[in-house]
Design the sequence.
């Protein structure tokens, strides 16, 4: 089943965000996805409120960080929200940006693939109500067990993934993958191919794609509304290489783009680079072809067509993100 989700983020005020969740359910979205951005509001607190304020729509973390929450505390929070929502939670998790985790918070990053594999295995067992003793290379637990029975013994766990190793992990150890903003149709098709090759005959896996969508009859104005955000995500070390390579776009702009966002400065918080960017230079580097390839922008018919392309490529849920009042007001034009 192909579905459409509403993307929200913890940079929004709590009351505003909950209001959007209510409107999203009323408008016919299948799910609401709340991302947790560094130093903003806590995602689990907000998603618990979202669950209380809605009745049918799935509520999802898209994503929360695995380094800042021990598997025990992740399971505690997820099981609590699942109880509040009466079984509507989708747990989306990811590793975040290394500079924030390791350089600013001083949490060892280790091998992110191995860490995620061990983390998922432990979290799944905890959410199933099992006692966990685990002595991995990255994750260690002794006699860990929730002191209450989770509502469901099997909650969907999705991993933020871009490259082949994490995508394979998402489809073998977890219940699916979440593709980040700046994912092209070509990249989504590549991810869907990995899904098919790893889960043949097994349980049905999810492939979620969070997309920056700007609906405007003036296509150029739609491009401009997301151009800087696209440049920022591409500038993040290791992120840009994956997004551009998997989309068939040249990588030669990355050195200048990272200079424009001042990545030579050793600052842990990624948002600092967005706030201190050379905006004029960013707009010169991120041309219309890049924006068009990596986002969904334009009039309603054009956006509707592009979203169908993602579904046709194998995406099970397209998440419209970020949602501005203007975009939301036109969401009904996309058949939501």
Sequence:
């Amino acid at each position: 089943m192909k579905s459409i989700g509403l993307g929200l983020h913890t940079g929004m005020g709590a009351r505003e965000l909950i209001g959007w969740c209510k409107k999203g359910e009323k408008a016919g979205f299948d799910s609401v996805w709340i991302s947790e951005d560094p130093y903003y509001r806590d995602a689990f607190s907000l998603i618990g409120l979202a669950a209380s304020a809605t009745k049918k729509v799935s509520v999802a973390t898209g994503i929360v960080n695995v380094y800042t929450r021990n598997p025990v505390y992740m399971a505690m929070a997820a099981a609590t929200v699942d109880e509040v929502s009466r079984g509507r939670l989708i747990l989306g998790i990811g590793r975040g940006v290394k500079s924030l985790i390791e350089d600013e918070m001083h949490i060892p990053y280790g091998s992110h693939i191995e860490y995620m594999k061990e983390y998922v295995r432990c979290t799944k067992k905890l959410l199933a109500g099992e006692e966990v003793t685990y002595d991995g290379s990255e994750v260690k637990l002794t006699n860990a067990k929730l002191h209450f029975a989770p509502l469901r013994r099997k909650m969907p766990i999705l991993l933020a993934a871009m490259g082949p190793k994490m995508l394979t992990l998402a489809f073998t150890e977890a219940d699916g993958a979440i593709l980040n903003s700046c994912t092209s149709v070509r990249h989504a098709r590549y991810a869907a191919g990995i899904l098919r090759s790893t889960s043949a005959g097994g349980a049905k896996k999810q492939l979620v794609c969070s997309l920056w969508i700007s609906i405007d009859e003036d296509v150029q104005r739609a491009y401009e509304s997301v151009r800087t955000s696209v440049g920022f995500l591409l500038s993040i070390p290791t992120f840009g290489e994956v997004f551009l390579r998997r989309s068939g776009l040249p990588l030669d702009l990355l050195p200048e783009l990272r200079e424009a966002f001042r990545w030579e400065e050793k600052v842990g918080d990624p948002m600092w680079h967005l706030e201190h960017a050379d905006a004029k230079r960013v707009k010169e580097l991120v041309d219309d072809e890049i924006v068009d390839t990596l986002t969904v922008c334009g009039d309603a018919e054009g956006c509707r067509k592009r979203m169908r392309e993602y579904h046709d490529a194998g995406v099970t849920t397209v998440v419209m993100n970020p949602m501005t009042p203007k975009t939301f007001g036109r969401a009904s034009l996309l058949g939501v």
